[in-house]
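Database export, one record per block. Field names are fixed; values are copied verbatim from the stored entry.
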Amino acid sequence: MKAIEALGRAAARIGPRMPVRGLAPIAGALALACGAPAAAQTLIDAGSVIVDADSEPTGAKTILVVDGKVQGVYDPGDAALAAYDTPQAERIDLSDKTVLPGLIDLHTHISGDPSGEFWRGATTPPEYFTLIAAKNARITALAGFTTIRDLGSRTDQVMQSLRRATAEGLVPGPRIVTSGRTISIVGGHGDVSGFTQHVNDVLDSGFTCTGPVECSEKVRLASQYGADLIKITATGGVLSQQGRGLEAHFTNDEMEAIVATANSLGLKVAAHAHGARGIEAAARAGVHTIEHGTYIDEAAARAMNEAGTTLVPTLMAFEGIRGQVGTGFYTPVVDGKIRAVAEVADTIIARARANGVAIGFGTDAGVFPHGENAGEFRLLMAGGLTSRVALASATTVAARLIGMEDEIGRLAPGFSADLIAVEGNPLDDATVLEEVDWVMVRGRVIE
């Protein structure tokens, strides 16, 4: 509060012609108000530690964190800790908790909250979406998700900016991997629909394409804007105002061009896909993940397995939207599509497992309230996954899918200190992850 009050007093003294160098003290005060930097040395006394989903709980241990990274996991009182147990070190008592690696959500939209009011895109300034994203970043981290893949933001650069702010500790939140804007066909899921033509034109984000050359250009544009990966809407979608089914939107040539261009830039492609033939086409084009996979069948699964494509089922999204049907929350066009997918959503995991498809953890948070992401564990287990496999899908498997398996997803020396604490043993019952008691991201405790 003192920092914020000081900032206010300084701002009151600022004239409209204040030189840029005069802003430095204010920037410092703002950084102080937003959160202290990570302690150089932190010792965490844990009741038990799960280093990864393949390991058993260790019993009482002390985790040493130095400069935001895990230095090691030690028996309590180990002589190696003596050099670090100084008055300057922070000591955290979690002796009644289980500490494990932070969770990873591969499919979020944190720059938005649940809404059926599609017209808000025409009335809300981008600055407001940025504030919403910052609010949801903290909520998501407190829910135990220390890394997210954000697949489609409301405005240009909001997620790229938040990615930097959370990395620098200016805003409390998870590590962010973002696609920025979504690439779609003209008039398809991901494009602006539902307004008159001149309003659609004004709201157009510039990420629609027709033909392989233009689609390749949009991938390069996304890369130029700082995307970490490419997100496409390979099929129609449920919550958009266009009602033309849920099958393939891009041609094979267009999707192949997108994937080839992305790969040439070192980027992977995530494909929103509901219809079976759209899933199959996207997998054959070489996309890295299929998001949703609602109507996955044997042929689609075979194509995914041949390409090494992983399914991110987003079961919480289906649960979140079906309760709003007929309430007026969504338009009649959307209500009709929700009714169609609700009939098959409960069997996505069973069909995927029957065909040997790999599963990663993703929720589509933003379609339902942020902070409820861990509800996905319950739904994955209802589909037949064990608690251990479900936990792996949100840690080691998810880390590999974003190319960070040597940095996150495990609790090991040299890994980022992305840690959470819960009561109980999530290897026996992953639903305990719905109540996270303590979170650390990059060595910073999230308050």
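Remark 1: Confidence is low (pLDDT under 50) at residues 1-36.
Remark 2: The domain at 103-373 is CATH 3.20.20.140 (TIM Barrel).
End of record.
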